[in-house]
Design brief:
The complex is a heterodimer of chains A (290) and B (262).
Chain A lengths: L1 E11 L7 E12 L3 E6 L5 H8 L7 E6 L2 E2 L7 H7 E4 L12 H6 L9 H14 L4 H4 L9 H13 L5 E5 L7 H16 L3 E5 L3 H7 L2 E6 L2 E7 H6 L1 H6 L6 H11 L11 H21 L1
Parallel strand pairs in A: 3-8, 3-9, 6-7, 7-8
Antiparallel strand pairs in A: 1-2, 1-4, 4-5, 9-10
Chain B lengths: L14 H4 L2 H17 L3 H18 L3 H25 L7 E3 L2 E3 L1 H27 L2 H11 L10 H31 L9 H7 L1 H24 L18 H19 L1
Antiparallel strand pairs in B: 1-2
Classes of the chains: A alpha/beta (290), B mainly alpha (262).
C-alpha cells in the first residue's frame, strides 16, 4: 500500500499570460509507515505536489495512484479518499467554523460509515492526542481558544477520521520551541501507530530529527531524494537547493574543527548527544588509566 | 487560482497602457456617449474602425475579446428577438395579437446588440490596460469636483481602493479554505442542492472571520503609518496630462462629435 505519483506535470493557468509552471515530470513513491520530510525553497512546487497527492488539484499530466487505484479513474471513491488521507494546510486554524470545538472536530466524520459510538470514540481520541480534555474543551467555541490551541484543534479535526496518510504543510511555522517539540513528538507517536506522515518544513532541525526519508525540490523537480542523513550529508547539492545544515550538524562541525572527534554523520540533537557522551566517557576512562 | 477572464489587468507597455488613467476614463465616457449617438451606416463604420484601432493599440489578446463576446451571444439573441417582435411599428411584416414583426424592430435590435458589443469590447480593453490602482486614481480625479458639494472624495476613493485591492487576497483565501474543507470531507462537488447550500457554511464562516481580522489588522497598520483620514494627505504621484493623454481625449471627443452630427 502506497501513494504513487507517476510523471506528474502541472502548469497553472496554461495558455494565459499568467501561465506558471509548477511541476515538471515528478515521480515519487511513498510507502506506508514512512516519515517523509519535504523541503525546498518557496515556490519550488512543494505545496502543489501535496495538493495533487491529496486529489485537490488535478494535474495537467500524470497519475496519482493511492493504494493501487488511480484517483482520477471514473467512479473513484472520493469520500473514501478523504477518510484515508488527511491534509493539514499552513495555518490550519482558519478552517475552524463550527459553533463548538466538538462539532468542528466531528465535521470530517459526517460522511463516515462508523456508528455514532465509534465516531465519538474517534473524536475523543483526536482531542486527547492533541492535548485537550474533550469534556472541558468540547463545548467551547473555537473562537475562545488561543492561537496555538486553535491550531491544535484544527489538526484534531483532520486526525478525527484516523487517516492512513497525513500530509502537513509547514505545521510548525510560528510555534514556540516547546510547542514545536511537543508537536513533533505527536507526529512520531502517530507514526508508531502506523500513520504515514509527509511533512513540509523549512526547519532543518525538525526534518533532521524527524524524517526517515527527505525529498528536496527545486524548480518543480525533485532535486535530491534519499534517507535524511544522506541528503543532509551531500552538502554541495543541499546548499544549491537551499537546505541549511541542522543546528546539531553545525555544532558537530565546529567541534571537529576544534579537534574533538565527532563523527561526520551527526544530524540530529539525539545523535550529537550520544556522540558527546561516548566522547566524554572515553576521556574519563583515559584519565582514570593515567 | 483566478480563472482567466477578459478584462483582467495584463501589465504591458502599449499606447493604451501609457495614457494616464483619468484621461483614459474620461475618454471611455466619451466613447460610450459616441456609441449611444451612433445611428447611421457611416457612424457604424467609424465606430467599428475606431474600436479596431483601440484594440490594436492596446496589444490585447484578441482571443480573450472574442471569447467574451461569444459568451454574450445568447444574450444578444434574446435582445434581438425581443426588439424584432415587440417594436411598435406602423408597417409590420407580420402581426399576431400583441406581437409585431417589423423591419424597424429588427434594425433597432441590431442597433442595441451593436452598442452593447462595442461597450463590452471597449471596457474590456480599459480594464485590461489599467491596473485597479490606476482605475482608482482615475476615478478619484474625475470625482474631485464633487468635493464642492461636500462629498468626502478622498475617503470614498480610499474605501474603493482598499476594497478592490483585497479582492485577489479574498479569492486566494477562499480557495485555500475551500480546499482545506474538501480535504476534511466537505462536499462542494455534491449534486444535491440542499447539501451544496449547507456545504457553503464551512467556507463562508472562516472567510468572514478572516476578513474581519484582516480589516482590523489593516486599520491598525494604516494608523501606525500615520493615516488619520484624508486631511493633509498628498497624492503618491501627481499625474499631469501628457500629450498622449490629451490626444486620446481629443480623438474620443472628435468621434463623439462626429456621431452626434451625422
Amino acid at each position: 500500500m502506497s501513494i504513487e505519483l507517476k510523471n506528474i506535470t502541472h502548469i497553472y493557468e496554461p495558455g494565459t499570460p499568467f501561465e506558471a509552471a509548477a511541476l515538471n515530470n515528478v515521480s515519487l513513491e511513498i510507502r506506508e509507515g514512512e516519515k517523509i520530510g519535504l523541503m525546498g525553497r518557496t515556490g519550488c512546487g512543494k505545496s502543489t505536489l501535496i495538493q495533487i497527492m491529496a486529489g485537490l488539484i488535478k494535474p495537467l499530466n500524470g497519475n496519482v495512484i493511492i493504494d493501487g487505484i488511480d484517483i482520477d479513474e471514473e467512479g473513484y471513491d472520493r469520500t473514501g479518499l478523504r477518510q484515508k488521507l488527511g491534509i493539514v494546510f499552513q495555518y490550519p486554524e482558519v478552517q475552524l467554523f463550527e459553533t463548538t470545538a466538538y462539532k468542528d472536530v466531528a465535521f470530517g466524520l459526517k460522511y463516515s460509515d462508523l456508528t455514532p459510538e465509534e465516531k465519538d470514540e474517534n473524536i475523543r481520541w483526536a482531542f486527547e492526542i492533541t492535548g485537550f480534555d474533550p469534556d472541558k474543551v468540547g463545548s467551547k467555541s473555537p473562537l475562545e481558544l488561543s492561537g496555538g490551541e486553535k491550531r491544535r484543534l484544527a489538526i484534531a479535526g483532520v486526525l478525527a477520521v484516523r487517516p492512513k496518510y497525513l500530509i502537513l504543510d509547514e505545521p510548525i511555522a510560528g510555534l514556540d520551541p516547546v510547542a514545536r517539540e511537543k508537536f513533533l513528538k505527536l507526529l512520531r507517536d502517530l507514526n508508531e501507530e502506523g500513520m504515514t506522515i509527509i511533512m513540509i518544513s523549512h526547519n532543518a532541525d525538525a526534518i533532521a530529527g524527524f524524517a526517515d526519508r527527505t525529498i528536496v525540490m527545486s524548480n518543480g523537480r525533485i532535486e535530491i531524494e534519499g534517507d535524511t542523513k544522506t541528503v543532509f550529508m551531500d552538502r554541495p547539492k543541499a546548499d544549491e537547493a537551499g537546505i541549511s545544515v541542522s543546528t546539531a550538524g553545525r555544532i558537530a562541525g565546529m567541534l571537529r574543527d576544534r579537534g574533538i572527534d565527532v563523527s561526520e554523520d551527526v544530524m540530529s540533537e539525539s545523535e550529537l548527544l550520544k556522540e558527546l557522551c561516548v566522547h566524554f566517557n572515553n576521556d574519563n576512562r583515559s584519565e582514570d588509566q593515567t | 487560482m483566478m480563472r482567466q477572464m477578459a478584462g483582467r489587468y495584463i501589465p504591458g507597455d502599449s499606447v493604451l497602457h501609457n495614457i494616464i488613467p483619468s484621461a483614459k476614463l474620461f475618454s471611455f465616457i466619451l466613447i460610450i456617449a459616441a456609441v449611444i449617438f451612433t445611428n447611421t451606416v457611416v457612424g457604424y463604420g467609424a465606430m467599428v474602425a475606431f474600436t479596431v484601432c483601440v484594440v490594436l493599440y492596446s496589444n490585447t489578446p484578441i482571443e480573450g475579446l472574442i471569447k467574451s463576446i461569444a459568451g454574450m451571444l445568447p444574450f444578444f439573441a434574446v435582445i434581438f428577438v425581443m426588439n424584432s417582435l415587440f417594436y411598435s411599428s406602423d408597417n409590420p411584416i407580420w402581426k399576431f395579437w400583441f406581437i409585431t414583426l417589423s423591419k424597424e424592430g429588427m434594425i433597432q435590435g441590431l442597433n442595441v446588440v451593436f452598442r452593447i458589443a462595442i461597450i463590452i469590447i471597449i471596457s474590456g480593453v480599459l480594464t485590461q490596460t489599467t491596473s485597479t490602482m490606476g482605475l482608482m486614481s482615475g476615478i478619484e480625479t474625475l470625482i474631485k469636483p464633487l468635493k464642492y458639494i461636500r462629498v468626502p472624495v478622498e475617503e470614498v476613493a480610499m474605501i474603493l481602493s482598499v476594497a478592490l485591492q483585497f479582492i485577489p487576497t479574498l479569492i486566494e483565501e477562499s480557495d485555500k479554505i475551500k480546499k482545506a474543507q474538501i480535504a476534511r470531507g466537505a462536499r462542494f462537488e455534491s449534486e444535491k442542492l440542499s447539501e451544496r447550500a449547507m456545504a457553503m457554511l464551512p467556507m463562508i464562516v472562516p472567510l468572514f472571520l478572516s476578513s474581519f481580522k484582516r480589516a482590523d489588522e489593516l486599520s491598525m497598520a494604516m494608523e501606525s503609518r500615520g493615516y488619520r483620514g484624508a486631511k493633509g494627505r498628498t497624492p503618491k504621484a501627481r499625474e499631469s496630462l501628457d500629450r498622449l493623454s490629451v490626444m486620446s481625449i481629443i480623438a474620443c471627443a472628435a468621434l463623439c462629435a462626429l456621431e452626434v452630427i451625422i
